[in-house]
Amino acid sequence: MVAEKKRRSSTRTIPSALIYEMWAGQPVYYRGYREVLAGKKTLEEIISCSDLQGVLVALLTIYIGNHINRKKYLLATNEIGLHLAVGDNLGHDLVIFEKEKIGKLKGNYFDVPPKVVIEVDIKADMTDFPNKADEYIMRKSQKLLDFGVEKLLWIITGAQKVYVINKNDPIWYVVNWSETITMLDDCTLNIKQLLDDEEITY
């Protein structure tokens, strides 16, 4: 409750450009937004991704695009907005939709659940989440499962780990990114192998 009050009162002075997501009508800001307010960083610095994040998202896009049935599925990337409900808007690195559920693209946030969501690291400020990264990941993942997402893969580059969260499995796993993960149908994913095949050092 204290965190919610603090967040609510701060929205009057914090520019909307620093809002990363909206959760039940409450803003979740970009990590580093306080440095922007203090003049120590620019907006571009905090919304931009690291070299490893950027390369990994690009490699994932190419790999997944070549290994899924693109007649059946649609892959989208570049901080895709997902509208869950009024006041609930989330951002994502990569999402895979079933084409038959989407219909015509309208130039707005998607409002149907993706089949798969893939995240690379965390862009949100986690000050208001008591257990920081773990709580943010758990709460955001549960929101997405409740919305109808079937599987989430959350890649943490610093620890070289992957959270594997499946709607039909009550056990949420954390594995080394050298493990081969079944992502969708017969498409598997091994993050370390993906980077090694491109001869990328990190």
UniProtKB/TrEMBL annotation:
Gene3D superfamilies: tt1808, chain A (3.90.1570.10). It comes from the Bacteria. This is Uma2 family endonuclease.
